[in-house]
Amino acid sequence: MQSSLSLLVVATATTFALFIQEITADQTYVPNLRRRSPDDDDDAPSLCALLIEPSGYPCTEHNIQTNDGYLLALQRVSSRNSNLRVQPGPPVLLQHGLFMGGDAWFLNSPEQSLGFILADHGFDVWVGNVRGTRWSHGHISLSVKDKDFWDFSWQELAFYDLAKMIQYINLITSSKTFIVGHSQGTIMSLAALTQPDIVEMVEAVALLSPISYLEHITAPLVQRMVGMHLDQMVSAMGIHKLNFRSNLLIDLLDSLCDGHLDCNDLLTSITGVNCCFNNSRVDFYLEYEPHPSSAKNMRHLFQMIRKGTFSQYDYGRFKNLRLYGQTKPPAFELSSIPKSLPLWMSYGGSDALADTIDLQHTLKELQSTPELLYLENYGHLDFIVSAKAKEDIYDHMIGFFRLLGKSGSS
Ligand SMILES: *[C@@H]1O[C@H](CO)[C@@H](O)[C@H](O)[C@H]1NC(C)=O
């Protein structure tokens, strides 16, 4: 007891020390962060140029502006086969997870990666990138160095970013869109789909590692961070941006892994055992992941883990009363997602973040009965980078989309 307590104290002290270094490091790290307008274009290559076009896929960059002033990039990808390009198929929007960006859908070979596979099946593929990621372009008036830039959680990603992406695709294609979300992309989708004006632009939704309730997360490292109130520490220290790319934050994670907690495999202690992770590609993945997000986003998720709620951000009783007109933050009503919206979900028995008990909770509250695909040995990352994801998941998902297209409901 004594020794685990002192370990915790050491870990906490180390955490503080590392965060202080992180702030200092961040202040000296000025290049490429000052993007204020879409014209003020950065020299950094785009996602299209860096990852998608080199594999032979036509790709165009689209810039959109959210209603609260964030500038986001969307990529539109089509098939390598020019016959399929003549008449573009139905649009599908890919929405990545936390600490990831639109690159997540293109990290394996064209035969293995969902973004490429959908394009090869003739879908009109749109790639979402939320605020704060490497591919987003800042804000009309805020700099990424302003704390207000990072004043968001996944609920803003749902109501502003995702809503604007769907609206834009709807405008350009004059068609309802399919949505595929992974992890944070699923909680964003579920929250957004409680809004009737968004649902009416959506054809169907496929969720990989679906999350809404987070009460039963089993990832030991996440439990530990929640237990030691890392979110509150970070916020008390005035840290607004989380950037896990720095070696310092990697060191921090290592420092949380002391003693009884087995973090030999850091990724596993966060995401669960991933059955089909290709270890020889890790260096390549790390060229793209992880992307930054806000400390407030982590805090919102930690609130949900502690309370078992699927609710808006909790500001504390008084500010809640002022903002929401009630002392508790309003809950998202999954039951207001229309029964007529076709839903498809795939979840894994080894996923330490999207727990099956939490998924049962989600399912109980939905009016509709989604089609489910359970993969016993899949962990959280397998849904994106499993070397066998095509056979295991994507072919089934595409079958589901195709069947809907045939019934000709729209
Ligand atoms: C794993 O990655 C390596 C390096 O990129 C690649 O050569 C190999 O084909 C991959 N294995 C599988 C099963 O995809």
UniProtKB/TrEMBL annotation:
One Pfam family hit: Abhydro_lipase
One term of GO molecular function: hydrolase activity, acting on ester bonds
Originating species: Acer negundo (Box elder)
GO BP annotations, alphabetical order: lipid catabolic process
Gene3D superfamilies listed in its UniProt record: alpha/beta hydrolase
Domain of life: Eukaryota
Domain Partial AB-hydrolase lipase as annotated: residue spans: 51-108
Swiss-Prot/TrEMBL keywords: Glycoprotein, Hydrolase, Lipid degradation, Lipid metabolism, Signal
Keyword Lipid metabolism among record annotations: yes
Similarity-based family: Belongs to the AB hydrolase superfamily. Lipase family.
Active site: S183, D351, H380
Signal peptide stretch: 1-25
Protein name per Swiss-Prot or TrEMBL: Lipase
UniProt keyword Nucleotide-binding, yes or no: no
